[in-house]
């Protein structure tokens, strides 16, 4: 009996020894362990909380104690750009004061003393063209006197030549004065010049017409050297000659051209021309007509 009890105890002990590792695995292995599933608590659901806005007072302590930053000094605004400087148009690139207003006033004044073309045509039987060449400086000793504007004074006397008219050609500013007979004679004087000019007697009908590059004429006659006329100068001169012949209603054969140097006075006595200047050449009549046909 005792032997059977001992044999049973030994069997149980042997079975326990065999089964104990299996029991430990079943209890402790996290993959299949019973205790591992029971020990892990189920996670509780967490409600989402919206972030709360914080005011500047709820920021960190250093931020609450720091003084507010000083505002940046205002930057000086940049000065406005100056307006563009408007400069008058330059002739041939030469800078000079703007005289457009002065020239327009001169032109308007001269038109007021210019005769109607119908009164000019047929007013003379002969037409003299006088080229006034100046080789002395205006302020030089012996040079013709000047008017207050610095224009050279030139006196023209046609009182002894009632059937002749005269056209002045020049390339420097002139202050012209005229004596005629009868005193109210119309269109006795014409002017063709590159520069500005004035006329002392301001009565209506004094001028027979004028062409001035300074007053807007596109192209005026040069002072032609009758001894050595260049082809370009001769062409322009003859074109102006024909214009004046048509203005006075005369053929070119009734015209005469004389080049004078440093003259301040010009006087006609019939067909005689008297001057205090120096005559540098003359061409007239048929010879002048032939010259302008070339």
TrEMBL record:
Biased composition (Low complexity): 45-64
Chain segments annotated as transmembrane: 6-28
Pro residues compositional bias, start-end: 65-86
Keywords: Membrane, Transmembrane, Transmembrane helix
Region named Disordered: 40-89
Keyword Membrane set for record: yes
Protein name as catalogued: Uncharacterized protein
UniProt source species: Methylobacterium isbiliense
Taxonomy of the source species: Bacteria, Pseudomonadati, Pseudomonadota, Alphaproteobacteria, Hyphomicrobiales
């Amino acid at each position: 009996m005792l032997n059977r009890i001992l044999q049973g105890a030994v069997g149980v002990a042997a079975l326990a020894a065999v089964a104990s590792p299996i029991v430990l695995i079943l209890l402790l292995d996290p993959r299949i362990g019973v205790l591992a599933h029971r020990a892990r608590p189920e996670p509780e659901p967490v409600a989402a909380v919206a972030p709360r806005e914080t005011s500047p007072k709820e920021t960190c302590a250093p931020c609450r104690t720091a003084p507010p930053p000083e505002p940046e000094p205002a930057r000086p605004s940049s000065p406005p750009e100056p307006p563009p400087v408007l400069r008058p148009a330059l002739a041939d690139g030469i800078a000079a004061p703007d005289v457009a207003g002065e020239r327009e006033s001169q032109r308007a004044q001269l038109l007021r003393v210019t005769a109607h073309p119908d009164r000019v045509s047929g007013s003379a039987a002969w037409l003299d063209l006088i080229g006034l060449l100046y080789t002395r400086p205006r302020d030089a000793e012996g040079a013709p006197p000047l008017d207050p504007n610095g224009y050279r004074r030139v006196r023209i006397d046609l009182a002894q030549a009632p059937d002749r008219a005269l056209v002045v050609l020049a390339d420097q500013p002139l202050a012209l004065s005229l004596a005629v007979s009868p005193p109210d004679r119309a269109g006795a004087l014409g002017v063709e010049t590159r520069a500005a000019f004035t006329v002392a007697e301001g009565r209506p009908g004094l001028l027979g017409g004028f062409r001035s590059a300074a007053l807007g004429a596109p192209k005026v006659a040069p002072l032609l050297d009758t001894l050595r006329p260049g082809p370009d100068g001769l062409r322009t001169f003859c074109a102006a000659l024909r214009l004046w012949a048509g203005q006075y209603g005369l053929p070119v054969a009734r015209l005469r051209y004389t080049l004078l140097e440093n003259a301040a006075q010009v006087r006609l006595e019939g067909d005689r021309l008297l001057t205090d200047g120096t005559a540098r050449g003359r061409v007239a009549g048929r010879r002048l007509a032939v010259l302008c046909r070339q």
